[in-house]
Amino acid sequence: MVEGENNLAYVTKRINEFIRQYRQKLLDMTMSEFEAAVQSLIRLKQDKLKSVSAEFSRFRGHIVSNKYNFGKLGDEVAHLEQLRKSDLLTFWDKYVNAATAPQYTRVDLQ
């Protein structure tokens, strides 16, 4: 459990405000900024692991979860390469934006 100096109502309000403002940030983002962000994420996912320990940690999660999807990063990169800004905004409005999301689930801090 993590405790902070702010009360839970304040933290919840700040989270909701962040979500509201971030949608506007997505709308204001130019196509070149969006594409640069996507390419940066793709490069990050394609980075070679620096040590055997890092590689073990990555694959251990697959083994422990019994998923064995060792090609998951490749799948994620393939999806990222096809991602459009409109796709992200549609997802945001369907699942994240409380005002428009039929699938919205709010997390309350207690």
UniProtKB/TrEMBL annotation:
TM spans (from-to): none
GO molecular function term, any single one: metal ion binding
Cellular component per GO, a single term: cytosol
Xref: Gene3D superfamilies: Metalloenzyme, LuxS/M16 peptidase-like (3.30.830.10)
Source organism superkingdom: Eukaryota
E.C. code: 3.4.24.56
Keywords attached to this entry: Hydrolase, Metal-binding, Metalloprotease, Protease
One example of a Gene Ontology biological process annotation: proteolysis involved in protein catabolic process
PANTHER family: INSULIN-DEGRADING ENZYME-RELATED (PTHR43690:SF18), NARDILYSIN (PTHR43690)
Protein name from the UniProt record: Metalloprotease
Gene that produces this protein: STE23_7
